[in-house]
Amino acid sequence: MLWRARLDDALQPIPDQWLLTQGYDSRHLCELSRDWEREFERRSPELWRELERQRERDLERDMERTFGPERWPEVRRDLERKLGREFLRIPPPSLLCLPHTIDPNTPKGK
């Protein structure tokens, strides 16, 4: 299941309004997102690395907010000990787009 933004008549996202997407549509959106990331990484490796660095900075900022500025250094040391010094660079798992339903456009779906 995925959440996607609700669009207005001009196909612009409406702030803070989301639609639940599930079934075949959910898998289709997942596959599009995964394929877009792979293509972006292939075509623009330098921009992709910068995007990854920004994700690391965002993750560190979020972790500091979560644990608080006083506890974050201690938590960071624990994570480095358990996961290695590069734990913020652990790549996110590849999107695994599981089929929730049969594709309605295939012979089995008709």
Task: Write a structural description.
The chain starts with a strand and ends in a 27-residue tail after the last helix. It contains two helices and two strands, in the order E-E-H-H. It folds into two domains: 1-43, no CATH class; 51-90, no CATH class. It has helices at residues 24-43, 45-83, and strands at 2-7, 13-21. The longest helix has 39 residues, at 45-83. Helix 1 packs across helix 2 (45-83).
Summarize, please.
By secondary structure, this protein is an alpha+beta fold. It contains two helices and two strands.
Present the secondary structure layout.
Layout: E1 2-7, E2 13-21, H1 24-43, H2 45-83
Antiparallel strand pairs: 1-2
Helix pairs in contact: 1-2
Could you list some keywords that capture this structure?
110 residues; 2 strands; 2 helices; 54% helix; alpha+beta; single chain; extended; 2 domains; two-stranded antiparallel ribbon
Described by its quaternary structure, the protein is single chain
The proportion of strand residues reads 5-15%
Say how many strands there are: 2
Mean pLDDT across every amino acid position: 78
Helix and strand sequence: EEHH
List the total number of helices.
Answer: 2
Helix content: 40-55%
Stretches where pLDDT is under 50 for at least 5 consecutive residues are none
* Widest β-sheet, arrangement of strands: 1-2
Structural class: alpha+beta
Report the biggest beta sheet as strand number plus sense, adding barrel if it closes: 2 strands, antiparallel
Principal-axes shape call: extended
Please indicate the count of domains: 2
Radius of gyration: 19 Å
Gap between N and C termini: 23 Å
